[in-house]
Amino acid sequence: MVGQVREVDVLIVGAGFAGMYAIHRLRGLGFSIRAIEKGDDVGGTWYWNRYPGARCDIESMSYSYSFSDELQQEWRWSHRYATQPEILRYARHVADKFDLRRDIQFGTQVTDATYDESAAKWAVTTDRGERFLARFLIMATGCLSVPKKVDVPGLDSFAGDVFHTADWPREGVDFTGRRVGIIGTGSSGIQSIPLIAQAAEYLTVFQRTANFSVPAWNAPMSDDKVAAMKRDYASLRRKSRNSYAGDYAEEAILTIMDLSPEDREAAFEKCWQQGGFNIQYFFTDVMESAEANRLAADFVRRKIRATVRDPKVAELLCPRDHPLGAKRLCVDTGYYETYNRDNVTLVDIHGDPIQSITPDGLKTGKASYSFDTLVLATGFDAFTGALQRIEITGRQGRKLSAAWADGATAYLGMAVAGFPNMFIVTGPGSPSVLANVLLAGEQHVEWISTLIDHARAQQIGEIEAEPAAQEGWARQVWQDADRTLYPRAQSWYIGANVPGKPHVFLAYVAGFKAYCDQCDEIARQGYAGFRLRMNAAA
Ligand code: NA7
């Protein structure tokens, strides 16, 4: 195929959950498509993140496709929160069921995408030298798909194995007899630490920032519970669509500041016993009032102290530098208990930063630590990393990297002015990671494919976000965020985890329902904020 140009209606980049659904949906609408995927199978983030303990933090009955009732009825999730292998099995099942693989090219990376204004088409090349021409380009590249560049000095000098949680060996890692060091205590660290501690001879955890973590209380799902939920699936999905977080869990019922101290404690305890994100979503004011948030955070800190036997370790594990939920809440199984083990040490690298990695461990300003295996759980270049790895050139030769030099913005979180006919699924400025990202991806795919279908029917050759609409959207996203406590953390939600990345709030915080309602209204108004051009080339 090298040398030839293959023409398709829609080129989809990525075959994670969003890309897979885009294939199914657009194929169903009769478009010719091709999907390009770097991995050698479907699953995206769930294909790469194979570290021990990797599992979703939204209940699996919710964190799964809703578009096919047959699919959601036939698939049986084993646990409340499925493990990565189970989620990957599900992705493969979906690929088989809907025969998706025939339109996916695996083991291939898109390197360049250039908009040809005269033809109103995207010219796309891959690392295999193939060339495609596509009327529409759908970037289903994921919000958390590119590990952030590891900014720890001396890494190359380390003599032992180095593993990154987001690029875990397919064959797994046998930790037996190993002395392990792990850097990073976000979700990936917090999920993997308990299991690595059980398997390894010794584990040293290097913590720069303590994070809030709440119990998953993960457990197998009984047949009765699954059957009852499946009977009620349609209404659970409706509830999710009309919720803040794209989930069916009860939410925003109580206001912390209206409760008496006793009722407050009882409500926090109830959330803790239910597990998962309840403590964040059950209260109207937890992300809006610093005082309400402090009360919830104090409750979690009390839980940490009650769990961790060594008071000094417990204090180190108590988050102090950000409001609860302003960095993504972690959902764990036995995380704090792990620090009661004899083979685990917690090292504070905030007070005493890492100076360098050495051949047999690492050095801080005050001490040296030795280990033979290093695990990096250091996170992602979120939202923009995957898009910026591709040389994307829009109208008049403008690069996406230049358009986003002061921060990534996209109208509705999906379309960028100057880059016609390109759509980003769960892009910057959409609810994405602040919602159930699987349903958020579905909603985007449906909305975008309906728009593309409309364009075909109306002989519209070009769809482009208007600059003013995009600016207005960015302003709204920022103003909504600014009314909350979210921007008060140096988080990947604002790009603060990647040195040099411009800080803009990258997710839409006003909720999934509010977002979907706006998208629906914009469609009803004939796609307000988009320039729809009839095109001779159409
Ligand atoms: P996160 O949440 O970004 O966590 C990364 C962790 O790694 C966090 O504790 C960081 O500390 C730490 N880190 C990153 N770079 C360094 C360096 N250079 N030195 C020391 N420590 C460092 O990523 P995850 O993969 O855990 O989770 C991402 C999302 O995936 C998660 O929210 C879920 O949605 C799934 P810091 O906080 O920057 O001080």
Quick description:
The protein has 538 residues and is α/β, with parallel strands linked by helices. Helix content is 32%, strand content 18%.
Determine Rg (CA atoms, Å). Answer: 23 Å
Mean pLDDT: 97
Number of strands: 20
Task: Determine the structural class based on helices, strands and strand pairing.
Answer: alpha/beta
CATH architecture of the largest domain: 3-Layer(bba) Sandwich
Label the overall shape: globular
Count of helical stretches: 17
Q: How much of the residues is beta strand, in percent? A: 15-25%
Q: What composes the largest sheet? A: 8 strands, mixed
Helix content: 25-40%
Low-pLDDT regions: none
Q: Give the termini separation.
A: 26 Å
Fourth CATH level, the homologous superfamily of the largest domain: FAD/NAD(P)-binding domain
Ligands: ligand NA7
The figure for the number of domains is 3
CATH class of the largest domain: Alpha Beta
CATH topology title of the largest domain: FAD/NAD(P)-binding domain
Features:
single chain; 538 residues; alpha/beta; FAD/NAD(P)-binding domain; eight-stranded mixed β-sheet; five-stranded parallel β-sheet; 18% strand; globular; binds ligand NA7
